[in-house]
Every structure is written in C-alpha cells, then in structure tokens.
What we know:
By secondary structure, this protein is of the alpha/beta class. The protein has helices spanning 4-9, 12-21, 29-50, 69-76, 88-92, 131-140, 168-171, 173-184, 201-211, 240-244, and strands at 59-63, 80-85, 101-103, 116-122, 142-153, 217-224, 247-254. The protein has a 7-stranded mixed β-sheet, sandwiched between helices. Helix 5 (88-92) links the parallel strand 2 and strand 3. The two termini are 17 Å apart.
Amino acid sequence: xxxxxxxxxxxxxxxxxxxxxxxxxxxxxxxxxxxxxxxxxxxxxxxxxxxxxxxxxxxxxxxxxxxxxxxxxxxxxxxxxxxxxxxxxxxxxxxxxxxxxxxxxxxxxxxxxxxxxxxxxxxxxxxxxxxxxxxxxxxxxxxxxxxxxxxxxxxxxxxxxxxxxxxxxxxxxxxxxxxxxxxxxxxxxxxxxxxxxxxxxxxxxxxxxxxxxxxxxxxxxxxxxxxxxxxxxxxxxxxxxxxxxxxxxxxxxxx
Length: 255
C-alpha cells in the first residue's frame, strides 16, 4: 500500500536522530522518551493522513504508554488520549500524572469493545509473554474502520537485548542478563524471560496475515520504523529482516 505522508517523513536525518537518541534510554530517559513520543505522534498523524483516519479528534488508545511522555504530544494534535499501563511504577515515573491513565493488562484490556479510532503500542510487545494476545485485544477495542498500529523491537536486531548490549543477546538472553549483572553489579531493567522476550519479525507478520483476520484485522502495511524509506524493502526478505529491521511497524485496519 502506498503511504505518501508516512514515506515522506522516513528520511536519513530522522533515522540518525532516533538511533543517536537510543543510547540515552537508561541514562537520560526524559531525553529519549520525549523524542520517541514526538516521533510516535508524528507517525500516527502521517498514517492517519494516508489512511483517512485523522488524528485530530480521534479517540486514541496507547497500550503501555509508560510514564506519560506521549500524552502531551497527542493532546497537542487534538487527539483524545487514553493509556493503559500495567506497571504502577512506570505510571508515576518522572512525576508525570495522566488523568486518563488506566492500570491494567494489555492481554486483558479493561475496556469495552469497539471504542477507539486508533489503538497503538510503541515498544511494548517484546515485554509481554503473549504479545499476540495483546494485539488481539487491541483489535477488539478498536472500532470498525479504525487502525491498530504495533511497533516493536525485533529480537535479532541490534537492539533486541535492550540495555544488555548490541551483541550479547545473540549468544542468548540469559547470557546477556548474566553479563550485564557481572559488569554493573545489578540486574538489567529488562530481564530476559520475565520482562523481555524474543519476538521475531516472522511472528508478527504471520499473526497479522493469518491470525488477525479472525479478529477482523486486515494488514495494510509493514515497515521498519527507524529506516529511511528507500530501505523499507528489507521487511520483505525472510531471515535478513530479522537482523536488519530492528523495529517492525504493523498497521492493521479493523473490519
């Protein structure tokens, strides 16, 4: 599917800016997440333009919105923003309070069916043990004709291990965890097998193409979030995409 507005923003300059910011996730989270929130809102705005689902006045669900950096960006664009976050600690981080925040599990959203125009999650699926149950729940609460947008970190990409390093997770998630603990004297924030899981690009594409239709979801587009437009082709190549996509975006429409 042609996505002109989304394609125009997928530039080298944007890619380099986002990749450079990743190193600040642990040391300066406000710097990293503020930029990520801005980019996420811009991404959804562009997709809404391309797919006739304007962000302004849309009811938007953010699953796993964390400490609240996203709320202001969506409010600035006229969206009615609600977030569901399972971690009370994340909800209170940075002293940010969101009146429209709900504590609950992404795999069993405490929300009625067919309520939202746009449901999305940003870098959440790799942190839940059953990511596709969460994705199905997001389809359930989305209105017919609405969009579900899933953006997640691919395990075999360079950032699959998150803060445990750019190569250790290739040896294994448990090895990466032990190496981090030996180096820093503490466990990583994202613990493999507990709060970090190996999710592949293949799994996401299979779910979107073969399982989502049972929940009335239709895959419209799949592309690597941090790549410039000319490099989106890597998503189409099995095996190669596991190492090069890094972060996969799946865009579905509720039937």
